[in-house]
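Meet our chain:
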Amino acid sequence: MYVIGLTGGIASGKSTVARRLVEHGAVHIDADHLARVVVEPGTDALARIRATFGDEVLNADGSLNRAALGSRVFCDPASLAQLNAIVHPAVRALANELIRDAEQADPDAVVVYDVPLLVEAAVDHPFDLIVVAHADEETRTRRMVDLRGMDETDAARRIGSQASDADRLAVANVVIDTDGTLAHTLQQVDALYERVRAALDR
């Protein structure tokens, strides 16, 4: 099995890279999706969030009220650290379980673990390769304005709240340059997949 850690800033083209790898047959594990799964009603993580932050962060049906929780933690670093200490280990445990499942299903599987906050959360999974989807800040801002309808100020704030390009590039084994055309991005991903398959076939 071969496990790729994939990351990139907002609007960096990371999802495009992940989709292309899946088209080649890779198994996709999405950390953002797992972060929602681990706080569903009945989970230990949700019970701990309730105990830490109170009933006001729950909806009437017992599900997590993300807006209420967000208003509590994102302007308070100590509270955010408490939340991360609950959610991040639960996500890691579930991701490890899914990776084991993929290996049992196919010992030669290529797994793409898609982690937007790989740097920020200090994800320490033993990846075979860390891939960073990278576009410069101007390109990412333009995408957020043109494709997502954000204003430039909000786009800049979102970019500024994440790890710096330098921090992400510092952990990269492979950088996929997504500043150019879609065809150029896909060519790089195709070459990456060929490299991974060659490593598995050795």
